[in-house]
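Question:
Write out your own:
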Amino acid sequence: MDINIFSLNYDYISERKMLQYSIGYELSLLRQRNSMTGSELGKRINISQQQISRYERGLNKVPIDILIYVLSIFDVSISEFFEKVSKRIITLKYKIKYETDHNFPFLENCPH
């Protein structure tokens, strides 16, 4: 299976992993801004708190139907959500390229 990767002169990072991480992080922020726990959100969409945690940490991919449902719960449009995800990815790329002290879980097991 080929994974599309990009170069930042010294690192190769899977764009898919970065996207997955960014989606999860934005979901976490959205949930927290709406004063909801992972357990409460899980009950609302009928999945476990542990699975919510895996999505938010970028360990598991969020199925599109669940993403759309969660966004509807918080009354956020798909375009608004992915605009934030896009900005987060740009920020991450900058940090990875210019900051030496970064600790991102999606960097694990990526060639350096």
In short: The beta strands are 5-7, 12-14.
